[in-house]
Amino acid sequence: MKQALFIDKNDPSEFWIEDIRGRFRVEREVDKVLSKKLRTRKNCPYKATSLETLVSCTQALISAHYSEKFKVSAPRWLIGGASKIQMAFNLNWSPGGNKNQITEMVLRMEPAASVCETSRLREFQLIKYVEEAIPVPTVYWEDSDAKYFPYPALICGFCQGVTKPTQSTSNVSGLGTNLGSHLRKGLSGEFMSHLATLHNLPIDEPGLSAFDIPSAPQDAARWNVDWWRRVWQEDSNQPVPLMDLAGGWMSANLPDLDKASLIHGDYRTGNFLFDETTSTITAWLDWELGHIGDRHEDLAWAMSRAFGHMDETDTDFLICGLLSENEFITQYKVHSGLSINLETLHFYRILAAYKAIVIVLGAGVRNAMNSKSHQDVLLVWLSGLASVLLDDLRQLMSKVV
Amino acid sequence: MEITLDLALSTILRSMTEVILPALDSSNKLAQEQSQLVVGLLTLLSNREPDRLTYTLTELEHYKDLAVKLNPFWSSDILKSLTATAEELLDKAKGNPDTEVILNKLRREIADIAGQVSDGTDKAAREARTLILSACSEQQLRERSWLLMQGWETDPSSIPELSELLRLRQDDLST
Fold first, then answer.
1. How many beta-carbon pairs below 8 A join chains A and B?
2. Minimum-distance CB partner of A383 among B3, B130, B153
3. Which of A1, A60, A132, A179 has its CB surrounded by the most CB atoms within 10 Å?
4. Ramachandran class of A109: left when φ > 0, alpha when ψ lies in -120 to 50, beta otherwise
5. Are residues B10 and B71 in the same domain?
């Protein structure tokens, strides 16, 4: 008879952590943050941090890098994401010896455990690297080892713009945003051209030292599948047979990589700011899931049913509320000059649905159970999205098994 | 489905006590008092939720015993019928002390099988995959209906009412 071994995921043993690390091959920095998450899971709930404390920590971090006089003022909370604590503030300083100026900035700090457990160092490096090619916030300083803040953090510039039309409504985290036909026309071109630019940037750069570069043909897919299978193993509460079916199928059907690209990892409406009057994208946000991998991953993620809606005539599904599937694929090819392999795209659509379920149903619920974040109530709400995502995953899987 | 009452209550309480209450205008006495009452009631429900089923069964047993004792002195057909139904329910409940535990074990076992057959090429593996995917479809529809008011569906009108889906399932089981 099979002997069931009881694993307490809320109090993981070192033996279990090492076993998991051995079973799933992920990038070094990903392994580092995931292992830390498990080792600090027990008895480390999120401790509410006041604006005053965050201002003191911000001053300490800036002082370590900037020796002139400065002043932090007007601190205020920001909302919008499901994973990080965000505070906007004004910095009165004289950068580069220039005259005194006020720069609006944003602090992004992790809670005790995040719905997306990621590296601030990687986020910092990636934004810094792409800033001349794509509109992004300027990154200033990072505290990836939590030397100055209670938890790892980074500071970047505040960007003007909105994530959804001022008069519109949407669900949490910008999901289900309807941009309307006027904005749709203006934004879809930049949405595609920025993605194409990102995927064509060189990857072997010294500034990206926290990223591993895939060398074997299946490395990119394997690291990615293993990343999310590992998080599901670490965080899931209720077993879901469909997730085991999909996980096993993906591991046995890894596609080869034809060109390694920089991947945003959460490329969708809700993660860019735009100017409502000019219909232009002012900044791409949330680079924390970025890595080097297969361009099909970003395409597949954007195609998720969770990020789009039907058009006004109820005939076409609009990817990210912007383009029909045909337009999306055609425009990507035109802008990037890169091909799309439909089999590979389907594999990554399965992975996209799987990853989204891991985030909302696995990590989100586990973190809320352990009081790990500043918005556990939002994480519980967000777990309901899994019902739609699981249906997507079932439909995608039924085409391949 | 993970939106359970105990998890929802505990996170709502944290949100109330750590974020919302400290931000309330201290001069608004009505809002202050009512928010404290909200916290008090939620705390009560949250603390008692783990014992709720046992409490209900204990109360049912209590009244069933009382009905049995009353029977020689003051009886009615309705009381006799209800006593019999209560005994039946209590017997069933005692035979299944923890539905959640058994449900989770069953899900785990089926999930393990799903992982094992995920890429098998033999007939048994293919059949098992088809069965698992088909069963997912039925269960997912119930979950989507349960959560419909959250607003995730692109076409909410395509999702049947939960009560209708539960009734259909019960009808299937009884035929």
1. 130
2. B3
3. A179
4. beta
5. yes
**Which residues span the domain enclosing B82?**
5-95
Does the beta-carbon distance from A384 to B3 stay under 8 Å? yes
Contact B118 A246 (CB under 8 A): yes
Q: Which of B134, B140, B146 should be substituted to probe chain A, the one whose Cβ sees the most A Cβ atoms within 10 Å?
A: B140
Straight-line distance from the first to the last Cα atom of chain A, in angstroms, rounded to the nearest whole number? 30
- Which is nearest to A161 in space by CA: A321, A281, A307? A281
Kindly state the tokens that stand for A54.
């965050």
Please state, in angstroms and rounded to a whole number, the distance separating the CA atoms of residues A69 and A28: 38
Domain ranges of chain A: 51-398
Task: Give chain B's residues under pLDDT 50.
Answer: none
At the top level of CATH, which class does the domain A51-398 belong to?
A: alpha beta
In chain B, residues with a C-beta closer than 8 Å to the C-beta of A399 are none
**Min Cα–Cα distance to chain B from A310, Å:** 7
The domain tally of chain B equals: 2
Decide which of B71, B95, B119 is a domain's last residue.
Answer: B95
Question: Which residue in B2, B8, B110 is closest to A241 by CB distance?
Answer: B110
Whether residue A5 is predicted with pLDDT greater than 70 in this model: the reply is no
Secondary structure of residue A75 in the 3-state scheme: strand
* Closest Cβ–Cβ partner in B118, B130, B150 for A248: B118
CA-to-CA distance for A199 and A298, rounded, in angstroms?
Answer: 9
Task: Determine the pLDDT at residue B69.
Answer: 83
Instruction: Assign residue A371 a region (left: φ > 0; alpha: ψ between -120 and 50; beta: otherwise).
Output: left
Q: Which residue of B has its CA nearest to A178?
A: B154
Closest in A371, A384, A398 to B152, CB measured: A384
| Span A53-107, pLDDT tens digits | 999 999 999 999 999 999 999 999 987 666 789 999 999 999 988 889 999 999 9
pLDDT given at position A1? 41
- Check: CB of residue A345 under 8 Å from CB of residue A300: yes
Minimal C-alpha gap between B44 and chain A (Å) = 18
